[in-house]
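Worked example

This section walks through a single chain of length 531. The input is the sequence exactly as stored; nothing has been trimmed or padded.
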Amino acid sequence: MSGFSVTRRQALALSTGGLATLATPAWARHALLDDGLEARADAVVTAFMEKFDTPGIGVAVVRPGMAPFLKGYGVRTMGQAAPVDVHTRFGIASNSKAFTAAALAMLVDAGKLGWEDPVTQHIPEFRMYDPAVTAMMTVRDLLVHRSGLPLGAGDLMFFPASSHVPEDALTALPYLKPARGFRAGYDYDNILYIVAGLLVARVSGQSWEDFISTRLLRPLGMADAVPSRDLLDTPNVAGRHARLGPPVRGMGAMEIVQPDESTMMNAAGGIQASVSDIAHWLSAQMAFGALPDGERLWSREQAREMWTPQTIIGASNGPTPDYPIRPVTTTYALGWFCQDYRGERLIQHSGGLSGQVTQTAMLPARGIGVAVFSNTEDGVSAGIRNALLDHLIDAPAFDWVNWLDTRVTASQQQALAAISGGIDTAPDGGPSLPLSAYAGRYRDPWYGDILVSQHQGGLFIDFTPTPAFKSALTPWGPDAFRTNFAKDAGEDAIVTFTVADGRVTGVTMKPLSPLADFSYDYQHLDFTPVR
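Given that input, the structure is written out below as tokens.
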């Protein structure tokens, strides 16, 4: 069947839809229906996998007073026999953000920083586009998506992999123009979590990767987990799969794709972990930082901080017959989304990489945690998560497979409508100058250089920091061209040259597809010629 892939934007939307103080969990006040969990999980996962051609799934369920339920389904990579098991590593992507928040919480406990400290107190060279915002930006602000930066700003430095390093985030930020006022609303970003990783390093004296390994992963018993994809040393790693078209990514047959994210973004999304690992993490979260032996990773006070809503994302009138878990309010805390789920408090996050989507979710009042890891971009992990949560709280029956299928159909129709004008037919118009006049080196102050050259009778573009982004340019309207990247290299761009007085004075871009993932933020680039 044709399918639908989930961008980083859609992974967030699929999983999101009042804060109580942290007390001892009142698990005893609730009936926990655990009978038949494995049978129910098997039925749910099998139904989703069959409907959406999913190669593999990993599931973890944590319940009070019981050993975690852990199970792998299917294969790591389509066409190969190696199975997904409870130790198969997945890229948990933005689920890593809660680990970065926990690292900072531990440093707050240690008295090495405070949530309201100005970032410049610890990173003096930190700058935002607006000097007033630079002065006001606190440690807390790094984590809560209210800086005023536009959605996905700066992501092109690390999706796909490039030569950029984490410190380049500090160089880039002064040039990323805000989309709204400081603390005026919600726009999801990754780049400030990269800065948060640098802050962990500045204050602790360890790299973010070393801090996460020694202070979190090892004490938690996350024996399979590593803080960066380049540290994987096992073949037991989930493959990646996506639908690459036609007509656009998100449609067509399932195909194998390769990892393409840079290790620059580790603090925002770099951890690789198994469902066995994530069960330890969810248990520690619901124990407010306490380990089984009584040792503490972070205090109850910091647990409260990490789950306290900071930024309002949205509100609605609540559940509907076709979406019975639609939240009344959705907010963002420190590395976690907070919302209501069938009248209960849900703490959750999702993570999307090219070819994988993962979910973590907790109902703290019941001591229930659920994680679903998938080796595809399709939205199956969100549907499975919901079905398992519903089973665990004995919610009314609901067909989550049909729910996702309905969303797939609607999304495909919207996608086809969005591209009804065609993305394979060039607009009218063409170059106003000889091709040689477009050749040259152009520089954007946060991304770096592109090199445009003449090649085989046409033009060729090289995004010099990003090895995957090299291609011939096809004329695409007045003084504009489109890239033709390899099929699985990422979204193509429309490259528009500004011409004045017979010469090129600048270059701007936008994604070719109106459905492109927000991390291909070509629209934030503004190149000028390098003389």
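What to look for: The longest helix spans residues 400-418.
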